[in-house]
Structures are given as structure tokens and as C-alpha cells.
Specification:
The structure is a homodimer.
Chain A lengths: L2 H22 L4 H12 L5 H12 L8 H21 L4 E2 L2 E2 L1 H5 L1 H17 L6 H29 L6 H26 L4 H27 L11 H4 L5 H9 L2 H11 L5 H15 L1 H21 L9 H12 L3
Antiparallel strand pairs in A: 1-2
Helix pairs in contact in A: 1-2, 1-3, 1-4, 2-6, 3-4, 3-8, 4-6, 4-7, 4-8, 7-8, 8-9, 9-14, 9-15, 11-14, 12-13
């Protein structure tokens, strides 16, 4: 992490803390305590940091984007509360999820109220900036809901294409990165062309990030914290699995289908599947595709009409994201 | 129903139908079909009608408020989807609820996406009008979530005061009536004072309406469609029950507590409880309080600075609401 990322993180952390104090005064406590709780579970705060950096890219002070940064973090945390219900997840960052701690009903309602607050914190901007910021956030929110539904639909669908998968991960996670950056750009009064180029940068970094994430699950590098092979054990339709099913023939196809039919479990299943992935070269294909999206992202960043030195931080931060998990 | 109400209903129905066609083109269908479904279950469309009437009160064409009317109806239907999950309700208007038909997860997500759309349909307005409209809708949305949580909290709380109850019904249902009217007024460029007076009218009509609803559950008039005594059988903390518990002494208190402890069931329980309500006069107190809120509402309408004839429709429509169920 660079010094700049540290600075922006500290700036945002203090803004978020003040907002949590505001929420702590609201009633009923039973509705707002879960909001404060999930915000306090931490995280790398990637989205708010992108919003602040998006403003700074255009020479503005990051402070102008603080409420936009708060908006995207609130929206992200709303989606975590509801997604955890959908996934029946007991834990988030090692702590009980909101629905585990307060029950399903309060988790639904606290999520709802947090989504509304994500737009309300934008009311500090001028009416014109508010119009653009909340329009972008609501478009993105719509896509995130759509992406989440696609993801659920894919679980029951045996003919998901790689293209549909990319569209799903774009909607479910990458658009919010683009949105965060563009909101920062809006706060800095950037031109429409520059705003859109920055959005494209975030979107493509997000897709590359997700493809990397798929790869790291099957082939974890050193110091990778997540339980490796989780996607394989859950038969999750990642790029690797979809591509492998499209390419596998003969023995490889039979073994892969037997894996999906539950013939092997645990590390044996992981070993069989990763061997097929390597044999078919889908790990390389995934890595190549991630590189293509990364190249597209950097080309988009290059096209933005500001001094090149302004882009150093985002370039470095994107590289950092694409090599480490957040 | 007056001719005017009929006209406004037809105008809104056609606008809503067009919007449902827009939703029908969006993907994934699995996300939007539940939205289209719940919107097609009908209802009296009280809130959109108030939005249209709110604009007309100030001499504007009701057409200017069509997207505001759509916004409040979308928001209302979002809240129905999520509330039905909270209530484990199998039916709405005699049809399966969204979570019954599509499952809990899709019901959560379809509700989420519909809430976002309720603000997005306001994007057709100028940036300044959008700023005011969405700010009001989001403030109201926050209160509705709070009201719903208060309601859930009250179920487990044995010391709910009448004042807290009034605050809860105001937040849960009445604020959206005030909001609908004020949004219409904003579309008609009404002054702030006029806007607020119209909001107060809607808020107080809403509270009076809810008190009437409590009364009608225990003492249904002729032609009342709902199963009478439902609140009593469910030990629901209505105005009547809260006031009765506050006033009951001696034999009445013992009988009431025995009813709540489950000593009697069915019509026997309803008869015992309603007898106590009459004995203590809480039916009269409820009716008087509803009348006070009604008077406050009409006083607020009177104060609005437009020709008195413009107010005829809202006056008549409010009377209609306060004497019939919607």
C-alpha cells in the first residue's frame, strides 16, 4: 500500500466514523445498530478510496468526494447484508452476519434503510451534482441487483456461457468500482468524456479482478488467505469451470462430469479438477482474459485528459488490487 | 368515488401499464417478473391518486405529477414485497405473495430493485425538481423502514405507550400519504408553505385513517369486508388495546389479561375483548382521536393559499377514505 492510499484511507475512516455517530443517535436503535455494526467490521474500503482518488485525478481535493465515498460504501454494505441472507452466510470477516445476530427480518429492514441512506448522504451536494451522482448510483444499484439475480439463476442453469458469466460479474461487482471512480470525477467537475473513460477503467479493472479471483481460488499463490478450492467444492460456475466444460472431451470430460456429480470430495476433488484445468489450459485462458481486461482498463486511463503524473496513484492502486485480494 | 377520482385513476393506470411494459423488456426476467406481478395485483392506488391531486390543487395539469405518482406506487409496492416476507404472509389480495411464488431470495432482490426504480423514475424531472422530489421520497422511505421496525419491536414490548403507537403508525403508513401529496405539489411548483400544509393534511388523514382501521377491526360496520376481530385474535397492539390496558382496573383488567394470556379463543375472545372496550369507552376515545386528526387535517387543507373550489376534490376524497377501507 502506498502512502497516498494510506492518507485517503485515514481521511475516509474519519468521515465514516462521524457518520456512524450520526446513525447512533437515530431511532429505533434496533434498526440502526446493524448498520453501524456492519460498517465497523472493516474491510479495505476499496470503493470509497476509488471515489476519493477519482476526484484527485482531476486536481480536486479528495475532501469534495467524501460524501460520494460514503455513499458507495453504504451501498456496498447494504448489498453485503442482503447477500449474506441470500447466501445463508453465518460469518462475515470472522464475525456473525447481521441476520445471524439480529434475525432475518431486521437484516432485511436494516439493509433497506442503509440503501436509502446511501442516496441521502449525497444531499450535501448542489442539486445539479446530486442529480448526476444519484442517477449514477441508482443505475449502478439496479445493475448490482440484476447481477445478483443472474448469479442465482446461473446456479440452476447448466448452459451458462462465458459471455453471460462476464456480464454477470461485471454487473454484480465491477460496475460499482466504475461508479465509485466516476462519482469522484463528477465531484471534481470532470468532463463527460473523462468521466466515462474513468468509469471504463474501473469497470475493466473490476472484471480483471474477478477473473483473477476465480484463478486464485483454484491456484492460490503464496500468502493467499482464503480457503483454496472453495469454488471447486461448491461447483461454482466460475470462468474456469465454464470454459473447462466447453473445452473438455473424452476422458477429461468424463472425469469433470464425475466430479460435478459428486464422485469425489475434499482435496481429492480439488486435485482432479485443477489437473483438468491445467490440462485444458483454462488457467492460462483465464489469466490471458484478465490481462486483456487489464490492458483495456489501462488504455482507458491513458486516454483521460489530465497530466500523466496525476494517474500514477490509480495505476499503482489498480496493480495492487490485481495482485492481492481485498 | 367521484368522477374526478375515476379520471385520475384511469390516467394513472395507463401510465403504470406503460411502465410495466418497460419492465417487461428488462433482464433478468426472474428479477422483474415479480415487480410486474405485484403491480398487477391492483389496489385502490390511493398514493398515486394523491400525487396527481396534489398537483391539480395548485392549478397544474395532473400529467406533470405522473412520474411522481409512479414513484410512490413503486415505493409502496416495494414495501409490500418486503413486509410480506416479514409477516410470512401467504396471500396478498387473494393471490400468492411474491416470496410464496418466487421464493424468499428473489423477493428480497425484486423488492430492492423496485425501491431503486422508485427514485429512478423521477429522473424525468429537471435536476432541481428531482433534488426536491427524491429528497422527500428518501426521507419518507427512511421513516417507513423505521416505522416497520418500531412495529416489530412493539410486538415484543409490553409497555408501548399510545404516543409511541401514534408515532409508529405515522411513520409506517401516514408519512407516505403526506409525501405523495407534497410530491404532487412540488411538480406544480407550489410554495414551501403550501407544500408543507398539504403534507400535514396527508399525514393527519393517514393517522386518522389508521385509527379508524383499528376501530373497524373490532367494531365492523355494515359491508366491511375484512375478517372482524383479526387484531384481537392476534393480540395486536392497536390503539384500543393499548388504551384499554392503560385504563382497565379490577375485573375488567383481570379479564383483559386473561384474554391476552390465551384463556379464550375465537369469537368468545372477540366478544369478551370488545365488551371491555365498550365498557371502558376506548371505542369512543379512538373515534374522538381520529376526529381530532381529521380536524387537524382539514384545518391544514384550509390554510393552503389556493381558491377554495380547488380543495373540493381532496376534501371529498379524504372523507371517502375515512369512511371506507382501501
Amino acid at each position: 500500500m502506498t502512502n497516498k492510499a494510506e492518507q485517503l484511507s485515514v481521511l475516509f475512516a474519519s468521515h465514516l466514523e462521524n457518520y456512524q455517530l450520526v446513525l447512533a443517535k437515530r431511532l429505533p436503535t434496533s434498526l440502526y445498530a446493524p448498520c453501524i455494526y456492519i460498517l465497523s467490521l472493516g474491510g479495505k474500503r476499496v470503493r470509497p478510496l476509488l471515489a476519493l482518488a477519482g476526484a484527485e485525478l482531476f486536481g480536486a481535493s479528495p475532501e469534495v468526494a467524501l460524501d460520494s465515498a460514503l455513499a458507495v460504501e453504504l451501498f456496498h454494505n447494504f448489498s453485503l447484508i442482503h447477500d449474506d441472507i441470500l447466501d445463508n452466510a453465518p460469518l462475515r470477516r470472522g464475525q456473525p452476519t447481521v441476520h445471524e445476530k439480529w434475525g432475518r427480518d431486521t437484516a432485511i429492514l436494516s439493509g433497506d434503510v442503509m440503501m436509502v441512506q446511501s442516496v441521502r448522504v449525497l444531499e450535501s451536494y448542489s442539486s445539479l451534482a446530486y442529480y448526476h451522482l444519484s442517477q449514477l448510483l441508482n443505475k449502478t444499484a439496479t445493475e448490482v441487483c440484476e447481477g445478483q439475480q443472474w448469479d442465482m439463476d446461473f446456479e440452476k442453469n447448466d448452459s451458462v456461457t462465458v459471455d453471460a458469466y462476464i456480464q454477470m460479474i461485471a454487473a454484480k461487482t465491477a460496475v460499482l468500482l466504475g461508479c465509485s471512480l466516476q462519482m469522484g470525477a463528477i465531484c471534481a467537475n470532470a468532463s463527460c468524456d473523462n468521466q466515462l473513460a474513468l468509469y471504463e477503467f474501473g469497470l475493466n479493472v473490476g472484471i480483471a479482478f474477478q477473473l483473477n479471483d476465480d484463478l486464485l481460488d483454484a491456484f492460490p499463490g503464496e500468502g493467499f488467505g482464503k480457503q483454496p478450492g472453495g469454488d471447486i467444492l461448491a461447483d461454482k460456475k466460475t470462468f474456469l469451470l465454464l470454459k473447462a466444460r466447453a473445452l473438455a472431451e473424452g476422458e477429461a470430460e468424463r472425469t469433470l462430469e464425475a466430479c460435478l456429480a459428486g464422485k469425489w470430495n475434499g482435496s481429492e476433488k480439488i486435485d482432479k479438477v485443477t489437473a483438468i484445468y491445467r490440462e485444458l489450459g483454462v488457467d492460462m485462458l483465464c489469466s490471458q482474459l484478465a490481462d486483456e481486461y487489464t490492458a483495456k482498463a489501462f488504455k482507458s486511463l491513458d486516454s483521460i485528459d489530465v497530466p500523466d503524473a496525476n494517474k500514477d496513484f490509480l495505476r499503482g492502486y489498480a496493480k495492487h488490487l490485481l495482485h492481492r485480494q481485498v
